[in-house]
């Protein structure tokens, strides 16, 4: 299987290890990329590397949530937004 754009696939990495507690090498998201837990190999590009720092599928950087980490949590806003 080819490594999806926006991911790093080390030698021996296996997509079945994504999200498992046992660890094991698996494809990892690069900074500025995001994917869902349900479809971890369907990768989206983000505009902000702070919001999408290359965490586990479905995770966002601090102060972000939702699809491609584009939403602010309730009762918060992105600096500069009105």
Protein described:
The chain is low in regular secondary structure and 82 residues long. The protein has one domain. Helices cover 0% and strands 10% of the residues. The chain has a two-stranded antiparallel sheet with strand order 1-2. The protein has a two-stranded antiparallel ribbon with strand order 3-4.
Summarize the structure.
With 82 residues, the protein is largely without helices or strands.
Topology:
Blueprint: E1 7-8, E2 28-29, E3 33-34, E4 44-45
Antiparallel strand pairs: 1-2, 3-4
Q: Please give the share of residues in helix.
A: under 10%
Total tally of structural domains: 1
Q: Based on CA inertia axes, which overall geometry fits?
A: elongated
What is the structural class? little secondary structure
Radius of gyration: 14 Å
Order of helices and strands: EEEE
């Amino acid at each position: 299987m080819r490594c999806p754009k926006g991911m790093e696939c080390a030698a021996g990495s296996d997509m079945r290890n994504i999200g498992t507690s046992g660890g094991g090498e698996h494809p990892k998201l690069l900074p500025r990329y995001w994917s869902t837990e349900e479809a971890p190999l369907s990768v989206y590009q983000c505009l902000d590397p702070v919001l999408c720092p290359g965490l586990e599928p479905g995770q966002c950087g601090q102060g972000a949530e939702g699809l491609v980490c584009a939403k602010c949590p309730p009762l918060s806003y992105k600096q500069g937004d009105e």
